[in-house]
Amino acid sequence: MINIGIIGYGYWGPNLVRNFFAAKDCCVRCVADARSDRLEQLGKVFPGITGLQDADGIIRDPEIDAVVIATPVFTHFSLAKEAILQGKHVLIEKPMTSSLIEAEILLNLAEQKNVLLMVDHTFLYTGAVEKMKQLVESRELGNIKYLDSTRINLGLFQSDVNVLWDLAPHDISILNYIINERPYSVNATGVTHTHNAIENIAYLTVNYSSGFIAHFNCSWTSPVKVRMMLIGGDQKMILYNDLEPTEKVKIYDTGYHHKTDEEKKRILVDYRTGDIHVPKLNTSEALLGMANDFISSITESKDPRSSAQLGLNVVQILEASSKSIKQNGREVKLESVNAHIQHIDQTVLSF
Amino acid sequence: MINIGIIGYGYWGPNLVRNFFAAKDCCVRCVADARSDRLEQLGKVFPGITGLQDADGIIRDPEIDAVVIATPVFTHFSLAKEAILQGKHVLIEKPMTSSLIEAEILLNLAEQKNVLLMVDHTFLYTGAVEKMKQLVESRELGNIKYLDSTRINLGLFQSDVNVLWDLAPHDISILNYIINERPYSVNATGVTHTHNAIENIAYLTVNYSSGFIAHFNCSWTSPVKVRMMLIGGDQKMILYNDLEPTEKVKIYDTGYHHKTDEEKKRILVDYRTGDIHVPKLNTSEALLGMANDFISSITESKDPRSSAQLGLNVVQILEASSKSIKQNGREVKLESVNAHIQHIDQTVLSF
Amino acid sequence: MINIGIIGYGYWGPNLVRNFFAAKDCCVRCVADARSDRLEQLGKVFPGITGLQDADGIIRDPEIDAVVIATPVFTHFSLAKEAILQGKHVLIEKPMTSSLIEAEILLNLAEQKNVLLMVDHTFLYTGAVEKMKQLVESRELGNIKYLDSTRINLGLFQSDVNVLWDLAPHDISILNYIINERPYSVNATGVTHTHNAIENIAYLTVNYSSGFIAHFNCSWTSPVKVRMMLIGGDQKMILYNDLEPTEKVKIYDTGYHHKTDEEKKRILVDYRTGDIHVPKLNTSEALLGMANDFISSITESKDPRSSAQLGLNVVQILEASSKSIKQNGREVKLESVNAHIQHIDQTVLSF
Amino acid sequence: MINIGIIGYGYWGPNLVRNFFAAKDCCVRCVADARSDRLEQLGKVFPGITGLQDADGIIRDPEIDAVVIATPVFTHFSLAKEAILQGKHVLIEKPMTSSLIEAEILLNLAEQKNVLLMVDHTFLYTGAVEKMKQLVESRELGNIKYLDSTRINLGLFQSDVNVLWDLAPHDISILNYIINERPYSVNATGVTHTHNAIENIAYLTVNYSSGFIAHFNCSWTSPVKVRMMLIGGDQKMILYNDLEPTEKVKIYDTGYHHKTDEEKKRILVDYRTGDIHVPKLNTSEALLGMANDFISSITESKDPRSSAQLGLNVVQILEASSKSIKQNGREVKLESVNAHIQHIDQTVLSF
C-alpha cells in the first residue's frame, strides 16, 4: 500500500485525487493547497483526506511514500527536488520542469536516491495512443514519414508559459512515445497578442535526420476546438481526431512509393488509396491507467510508460522551441542530452 | 469583342476554354498545345475553335487580342514576355512566374506596352472570399490578428515546383487580397520524401510588423483532404471550410481583449463566445467571374481584382519561402519590391 | 426547506440525488432501493443520506414533504398514488404511467389532495429546447408545419416497455411543450426482433387537424447514435442535433409559400434559402433546472414547466401508439382527455 | 450497334444523352422534346444528334432499335406501349409507370413482342449499392433485420406525383435489389402543405413476414439535405450516407442476439460493438453503367440488373403507399403480382 500526498488542488488536482482514490494498492493521505477554499471543497467530496496549506507537510511526512505535484510549472523543480531528497517517489504534472537543466538534475537525483520519478503525460494511457503505438511498432504503416498535429481552441491565456509549453506537451509526448528516432533540431515561430511577450499562437517544426518531420500548430485563440493529428507512413496513414466520440483513430490504407524514371530522369510517385479501418479502442479512463502505472512501477520496480526520460525529452524540445522563437525561427539543434548531463556541476544541486 | 487565344490544354486549360466560351464580349479563337491527343479532345467538344501545336501561332496572330497562359510554371515568363511584346493582353495561371525578378520584368513590360497583365487567382472570385473580404473591410472582425490555413490531400507530386508553389498560391492570394498590411518576412520548413529535393510537405509562417501572423500548412501526402482557413479578429473570427457544400464560411461572435492588472502586474484576458452566423454565399462559378473580370478590365481599362501586382506579391512570398527552407527555416526578409525594381537592367529583357 | 425522499437508485436515481443535493431550498433525507448493493454505493458517495430497502419508509415518513419516483414504469402508478394519498408532493420519472387512465387518476387525486404532481421530462430544461420554444412562440419560424425526430442507437432492450415508451417520451414532451395545438390521432408501426413482443424498432406519426404533422423514428438497434429533430415553419426551419457539442440548434432562414397559378390551375411553390444562425445556448445542467422547478413550484404554488398534464398528454400518445401497432398501423384517435376523465369511477381509486 | 432515340430532354434527358453518347455499341440518333428551346440547347452541345418535336418520329422510325423515355411519369405508359408495339427495346425513367396495372401490361407486352423492357433505377449501378448487395448476399451482415432510409431536402414540389413517388423510388429500388424476400404489406402517412392534395412529406413502412422491416422518410421541405440509409443485420450493420464524398458506406461490426433466461422467463439480449470498416468503392459513373447494361442486355439477350420486374415491384409499393395514405395509414396488402396478372383482360391493351 503506497501512501500518497498530492500537492496542488486547482484545475487538475481533483482529477488526480479522484483517480488515485480509485487506483489499486494506494491510499491518498493528504492534499496540500495554499487556498483554503479549495481545501474546503476537498473536505466536502473526500472527508477522509487531510487537507494542508503547506506542501512541506507532505514532503516531510515520513508516512508518505509518494508525492504527486500538480502545481504551476515554475514550482515543479524545487518541489520535486525536495521530495526526492526526502526519499519520496515523485509524479510531476506535464510539462515536467521549466528547463532542460532542471529536468536533468531531477533525473540524476532520482537515480542517486533510488526513487521513481515519473511525469503525467496522460495521453500515453489513452486507447487511441496505445493503438497508434501498436500500429507504428508492428510496421503496419510502413516507414513513418511525418506527424502533423493541430491543437487549437479558445483557451485560457496562461500567464507563466506560452501556448507551446501549455498545449504541445500532449502531442510531443505522443511523438516521443511512438517514434523511436531522436530529433536533431527544431524551428518555431509564434506571436503574442498581449503585452507580456507570452506567445498565444505558435508553430513548431521538429526535424529528424531520417527525413521524418513533425509539426505542431497550437493556439489559444481559435473559435473552434481542433484536436487532430496525422501520422503518415508510406504504407498506411492515420487520422487521429480526439474530438470524435467513437471514431478517434482512422487507418487509411493509403500510401505511395517513388522510383526514378531512368529515361527522363524524373521522379515518379505511385499512389494507392484503399479501405479505411476504424478500430475499436480501449475506453478505460486514461488518468486511472496513469495512476495505476505510477503505483505498480513503484511496487514492481519497473519503468513506467510515461517515464522521466520521456518527460525530459519533451522539455528539451519545448526549451529549444522557445529559443527558436526568440531568434525569429532560426533552427535550434538539440544537443545529445547524455553529453549535456556530464556538465552538471554537483554544486548546482544546491540551487 | 476580345479575341482570345489559350496556350495549354492540360489539366486547367479545358476549364478556361469552357468559361471564356461562356464569358461576355469575347471569343475563344484558338488553343495551342504540343500534344495532339489534347487537340483532338478539344476538337470533339469545341469544333469551332482552332487547335494549334505551336504557341507562336497564337502569340503572333494579329487577330488575337488577349493570350491566356495555362502551361507549366517555368514557361510562364517567356510566353508572357513574348505575348506582351506583341502587344497582347495577358492572363497567366497561378503562380505567375518562377521568380520575383521575372514577375517584376513582366509588370514593367506590360506598363510600357500599355497592355493588361493579370494572374488567375480563381479563389478571389468565390463567394466565400468575397464575403470574407467584406467582413474584414467592414471591420466586423475588429483588428485582424491571424490567418491560419491548412491545404492538404493526397496530391500529385509535381516534378518542377514544391508543394508550397503548387498549393499555397491559393491561400496566399486570399491573404494578400483581404489583408492590406504588407508582410516583412517569412519562415518556412519542409521535407521531401523523394530524391528530387522537391518538398512534398512544407510549413510557412508570414510575419507582419503589426503582430498579425499568417501560417500555411501544405502537403501532398495527407490521407484526408483538408481545405480550412481560420481568420481571427479580436471582435469576431471566421472558419472557412471550402469542402463544406453549403456552410463554407462560419462567423463566430467570439473575441477577446486584454488589460493589465495594475496591482499584480499580470495580463488579464477577457473572452467572449456567442452566436455563430453562416451567411448565404454567392454561388456563381468563380472561374467565370475571373474570365469576365479579365475581359471587362480590358474593355473598360480598369484594374482587375486578381491584379499582376497581387500575383507578384504571391511570388515574392513563395520565393522567400524557398530561400528559408534552403536555409533551414531562417527568417527571410521581404525587400520592398519598388526598391528592387530599380535594379533591373534593361538588358535583362533580352533573356 | 423541502424534505425529499427518492425511491429507486438504479440508472437515473444517482443523477436525481446529485442534483437535488445541489438544488436550492431542499434536502434529500432518504433513498429507497430494494437492492442492498445500490444502497451501499449510496452510502459511499452520500454518507449523510439514509438508505432504505422499502419505499414505504419514505411514503409514510411524516418528515418527508416530497417523493421522487425513479422506479420501473409499471410501478409508477401505485407508488405515486400512495404518496399522494399520504399528502406528499410527487415527482415521477418519464414516462409518467403505463396507461392514460392511471395518469388521469393521479391528476385527479393530486388535485383533491392539493399536492404538486410533476413528471421529470428533463429535456424541457435544456438550453436547446428553451431556445426552440422561444423561436416558435415568437413566431420567428412562421406557421409550424412539421416536426420530425430520429432517436436511434444501439440501446438496452427494455424488458417491460417497447422502444417508443423508452425513447419517444423525450421527443413527445418537446413536441407537447413547443406546439400548442392538440393532436387528434396517431399511426404507429414497429417490429420486434426478439420473442417477447416488445418492439425494438418503431415509427410514430402524430396527426393534427391544422395540417401540422409530427413523426418519430425510434430504435434500439442502430449502429450509430442519432439525436436529430427538424422543426419546419413556412418562414424558418430548425435543425436540432443534440449530439453536437456546441452547435445543437441551427436556424435556417429557409421557407416556402405557395400560390395557385390561375391560368394553369397549378400550385406554384416559392422557396427561399438564406443565412443560417446558430444561437449560443444556456448550458446549465438541465436536471438541476428540473429539480429547482419542482422545489420552487412547491414553495411558490406555481405550475411547473414539466407539468403532470404534459406528462399525461405524453402517455396518451404512447398508449395510442401501442394500440396502433397492435392494429397494424391503423389510425387511433385521441379522445379528449377531459371527456374521458368523467368516466372514472371513484371505486377505481382502490385498485 | 444499337440505334437509340431519347424522348424528353428536360432535367434528366441531357444526362442520358451524354452517357449513351459515351456507352459502347450504341449510337444516339435522335432526341424528341416538345420545347424548341431544349432542342436548341441539344443542337449546341450535340450537333450530330437529330432533334424532333414529336415523340412519334422516334417511335415510328424503323432505324431506331431502342427508345429511352425520360418524360413526366403519367406519359410513361402510353409512350412505352407504343414503342413496344413498334418492336423497340424500351428504357423508362423511374418510376416506371403511374400504376401497377400499367406496369403489368408493359411487362406482358414486352414478353409478347420479345423486346427488352428496363427501368432506369440508376442507384443500382453505384459502387455503394453494389458493395451493399455483396455484403448482404455473402451473409456478412447475418440475418437482415431492417432497412431505414431518410431522403429529405428542400426540393422542387412536383405537381403530378407526391414526394414518395418522386424520391422513394431510389430507396425502394435499392431495397428490392438487395433484399430477396417479398413484402406483404405497407403503411404510409403523409401530409400536404399546399392545396393540391399532393403530399410533400410522407412516411412509408414496408412489412415482411420474416420480421424484416423497411421504413422511408421523404420530404421536400427539409432545410438540410439528408441521404442516409441504415441496414441492420444481427451480425453487422451498414450506414450508407450518400452525401459523404469518400466514406459513403460504413460497415459496423456491431450485432446482437437474444436468448431466453429460463429461470426468470425474460429475454436477454447480448450486444457486440467492434471495429468499423469503410471499403473503397467503385467510383465509375453509375448512369454510364446503367446505359451499358441496357445496351449489353439487348445485344447479349440477358436480364439487366435494373429489370422491368424490379421496376414493377417498386410501382406496386408506391401504389399501395398512396392507398394507405388515403385511408389514413391503414395497412394495405400487396397482392401477389403473378396472381394479379391473370386478370388483365386482353382488351385492356387497347387503352
Automatic annotation (TrEMBL), chains A, B, C, D:
Residues 130-232 form the GFO/IDH/MocA-like oxidoreductase domain. InterPro entries: Gfo/Idh/MocA-like_OxRdtase_N, Gfo/Idh/MocA_Oxidoreductases, GFO_IDH_MocA-like_dom, NAD(P)-bd_dom_sf. Residues 2-121 form the Gfo/Idh/MocA-like oxidoreductase N-terminal domain. It comes from the Bacteria. GO terms for molecular function: nucleotide binding. This is Oxidoreductase.
